[in-house]
């Protein structure tokens, strides 16, 4: 479980996160939704340590990420898997080497052990046939799946996905969403997904948080989101004219 | 001043919390090939022609009955060893290697590859930059020795083929009044310049923010700043060591 408390962050005097407090449950897909520029990615970066919040705390199973010692921070980092928006694959390495990279860097496993794990992860995301290809030779959807394989290769307890289906066609998006949900439940991971894709919200949103102008305006599950009374969330959900006409 | 402070803090991070030695060894070998071996061709072309031009122009300016013609070779040798091979080669390398380092790291930054390393708990600056710095400090002196040899050879070819100087005079000239210390001086320069070019270019690339336009700016800034720092260091080394 991840608990964030009163996370506040400002850039050049402009407050982009306004005291956000939330709890993300284990074995569930926790979604952070909101329009562009509402602070979703900054919040994610605060949680994974790429941006240090001005105030607040982030607890990973009661271990404080920012106020603990360096060793605690390092051990938490090794329990994280992150899927970046563009995949963030290393251009000079093959798909297989990309997935093996965390094992090469952070473990003392033998080559055979590492290879077995890599093969398993690539199989899990359905990319075992593309192991020897370079990132430039695969599609956007495949890059995301390689990113997922690399994120899970170390058996993470926490999985963070930054807009996992941005730039993908609807069918591939659904497949990526389903894969993330399956992996989350299979390995009992605490998964946090940043998205503004409504398909994802309805498909895999077990625990949803809505951000608006850096503040948390709504929290709940996907079955309740349609019935919301929050005007900003309604505007976000029914931004499409056709959907507005179908609004309950 | 804040940029200089940030640069020194960045240098400090290269040596803090390193990874496994085997990882660095593999990375170092990759970088030695990328920085050193891939620069041999351009260094060979530039140094050979500079040596050839130096010989022809020196001979053109030394038309005097009281100066022996072998002095042309002596001047070419000393120019190559003291200045042309180390400084001009490193200016060329600042352009080739510096822009390459800055654009590589800049692209890694904007495509979140550096973020991916940091999230894994890897010291990204140490992992990515330290092997580049060591590779530059190791391969630049080798390239400069190679450049000096080719420069002097280029002078020989140009001088003898055009009839400006005889083979005998040239070979006598390059051995006349030879100071072995100059070779040491020639090797110290690229060692220092390699450090400056690799660290400045890495610094510019590592802190790139934005998109493709900013990567281009970082690359240009890396080359400009590297060249300026090489010229300043060249002057300081000459003052200190000669």
From TrEMBL, chain A:
It comes from the Bacteria. Residues 2-238 form the ABC transporter domain. PROSITE patterns: ABC_TRANSPORTER_1, ABC_TRANSPORTER_2. GO terms for molecular function: ATP binding; ATP hydrolysis activity. Keywords: ATP-binding, Nucleotide-binding, Transport. This is ATP-binding cassette domain-containing protein.
Automatic annotation (TrEMBL), chain B:
Signal peptide: none annotated. It holds the Pfam family MlaE. InterPro entries: Permease_MalE. The keyword Nucleotide-binding does not apply. GO terms for cellular component: ATP-binding cassette (ABC) transporter complex. GO terms for molecular function: phospholipid transporter activity. It comes from the Bacteria. Keywords: Membrane, Transmembrane, Transmembrane helix. The chain crosses the membrane at residues 32-53, 133-158, 178-198. PANTHER family: ABC TRANSPORTER PERMEASE PROTEIN-RELATED, PROTEIN TRIGALACTOSYLDIACYLGLYCEROL 1, CHLOROPLASTIC. This is ABC transporter permease.
